[in-house]
Design brief:
2 domains; single chain; globular; 325 residues; mainly alpha; 14 helices; 68% helix
Length: 325
């Protein structure tokens, strides 16, 4: 869905539309905290949290991406999508390509080569970008779930802290809708990780069970969540802009696997380092933020750059960034 929304809008609308999709995730976490607080039966909790999945059937009515259809030279289908969109918005769209030739044998023989994510492994430049994004997503996954697992050690009600953390995604959405378009994806991402490291300091240097600083520790945790959500939103948008349409969905899915791997390893990281000191997991967060900053320096800036369509445009991404620097 994230990729689908991205490919429907112009560059100036990418940030705001992509972040609107992320709001649903915040609502889901808030809903989960609410259900966990009210419902004590795990069976009932499972039922109430899976029922909303029925709404996913609405995705069957979504239009196919015109960018992808044009890339595959399915011009007739792309024209139909444009016409339906224009009709829905009551703004007729002029289709400037010939939509009646895409079924001809001559046209099919000229169809572009089909690329997969495996083509990224054939070139050094694309390989570096792929694994850099994968590692950044892994780092993000560890940070995110380490923070959630440590909410019990912050103080106060766990349900309230998690609900507030979910609510923190709302201001993060507004930040991620403005700053990446103002200062660029790279600068915004780096700044967010620096702020996360600074916000962790009150948690590390205040007593764990001192009642008067519970509010300070909770506020610091919420600030960490806001700027992590901000960095995650920027990274999602950045990833979609780096990968061309030819492999955008595959590249996005494969690199976000790093987020899943990070979330899976976070409990082991927390349990292991906590044996040293109760603040050790937060120190790990600071170290991972530094690693994320270093890795992000390897990625090209995509602010104001039109969405890449063909696989060959992947190399243009690298060259354009090299010229800027």
């Amino acid at each position: 869905m994230y990729v689908q929304v991205f490919e429907f809008v112009l560059p100036r609308h990418r940030a705001i539309t992509s972040n609107l999709v992320q709001v649903s995730y915040a609502v889901a976490i808030y809903y989960l905290a609410f259900i966990a607080y009210l419902v004590r039966s795990w069976r009932a909790t499972l039922l109430y949290t899976t029922l909303p999945c029925v709404l996913s059937i609405l995705a069957l009515g979504f239009y196919r991406s015109p960018r992808w259809l044009i890339l595959k030279q399915q011009y007739r289908e792309a024209a139909e999508v444009f016409q339906k969109l224009g009709k829905f918005n009551k703004r007729p769209i002029q289709v400037r390509f010939q939509a009646d030739n895409d079924d001809s044998d001559e046209h099919k023989t000229k169809s572009s080569k089909t690329y997969t994510i495996l083509d990224c492994f054939k070139h050094k430049q694309t390989l570096v970008i792929f694994f850099t994004i994968l590692l950044i997503q892994y780092v993000s996954g560890v940070i995110y779930y380490t923070m959630y697992l440590e909410f019990n050690n912050i103080g106060g009600s766990t349900y309230l802290v998690i609900a507030l953390a979910a609510t923190a995604d709302i201001p993060a959405m507004f930040l991620a809708s403005y700053f990446p378009d103002k200062y660029g994806r790279k600068k915004s991402f780096i700044a967010s990780l620096i702020i996360i490291g600074l916000c962790v300091a009150p948690i590390v240097f205040t007593p764990q069970n001192y009642a008067k600083v519970v509010l300070v520790r909770t506020a610091a945790a919420i600030a960490v969540k806001i700027f992590f959500s901000f960095s995650a939103d920027v990274m999602m948008l950045w990833t979609l802009e780096i990968f061309p349409t030819a492999i955008r969905t595959q590249g996005f899915v494969m690199t976000t696997m790093g987020l899943s791997i990070g979330s899976a390893t976070a409990p082991f990281v927390v349990e292991y380092v906590r044996t040293w000191a109760y603040v050790a997991p937060f120190i790990v967060i600071v170290a991972l933020c530094f690693i994320g900053i270093v890795l992000s320096l390897l990625l090209p800036e995509t602010l104001g750059v039109p969405a890449r369509e063909k696989f060959e445009d992947f190399f243009n991404t690298v060259r354009v960034d090299a010229e800027k620097n």
